[in-house]
């Protein structure tokens, strides 16, 4: 799913500076290699609806798209962009250094660390226990058996590893305060693994299937859950990307989500 981005043509070919949320924030992103952010990151960001002074961890942040989208829409949010790849963490730091991002950069930082770290190693990396109100994640959810890209940086960002959701959601549960919210985007095929990984850590799961058009199968799911909750799972009404089968334009509500004009709040 591609987001509305506006590439700058006067940058070196190795990277571009792309505008999101109609120019409210910008990302430095690689060209021809690595992961370039799009619609998935914007939909993930819209899952946080919270006007408090909150701390947000963006796990597997890449160049920082989802985390910066949260901080742009919510002026009281501070964001920690957690990224394992030195290359992508470097792009996130370049993004924070842009003059266009001066306001949001004051509420954001980058931690280069493996999301799957545990115990003292995780804390030493800067991810302390019970320290975030929200954790968001857009983990590599492509099946390892899918056609492989020759780009190692992109493969690392896209290909699922064994026990991925278990290890990532375990970290989310450790660094989040009781009652904090987990938010993620994934393929529908991962729903069983996600529910299993939430286990007793998270309850009150709310799952929304995203369909391209009426009558077409879902291509993504949005999932939120609350740490320590014992509420039962709810399947929400589906979200249609394009409500007109003859148009490529986003449905009005989806366009609002994509451009940071609206959030997608939980039912409870």
Characterise this structure.
By secondary structure, this protein is an alpha/beta fold. The chain has one domain (6-258): Rossmann fold, CATH 3.40.50. Helices cover 27% and strands 26% of the residues. The protein is built from nine helices and twelve strands. It has helices spanning 39-45, 65-73, 86-97, 102-105, 119-124, 152-158, 164-175, 191-198, 252-258; strands spanning 6-7, 15-20, 25-30, 54-59, 77-83, 108-112, 132-137, 176-186, 202-211, 220-227, 234-235, 239-240. The strands form two sheets. Strands 4, 5, 6, 7, 8, 9, 10, 11 and 12 form a nine-stranded mixed sheet that branches. Helix 1 (39-45) packs across helix 2 (65-73) and helix 7 (164-175) packs parallel to helix 8. The longest helix has 12 residues, at 86-97. 43% of the residues are buried.
Describe the structure in brief.
The protein has helices at residues 39-45, 65-73, 86-97, 102-105, 119-124, 152-158, 164-175, 191-198, 252-258; strands spanning 6-7, 15-20, 25-30, 54-59, 77-83, 108-112, 132-137, 176-186, 202-211, 220-227, 234-235, 239-240.
List the helices and strands and how they pair.
Layout: E1 6-7, E2 15-20, E3 25-30, H1 39-45, E4 54-59, H2 65-73, E5 77-83, H3 86-97, H4 102-105, E6 108-112, H5 119-124, E7 132-137, H6 152-158, H7 164-175, E8 176-186, H8 191-198, E9 202-211, E10 220-227, E11 234-235, E12 239-240, H9 252-258
Parallel strand pairs: 4-5, 4-7, 5-6, 7-8, 9-11, 9-12
Antiparallel strand pairs: 1-2, 2-3, 8-10, 9-10
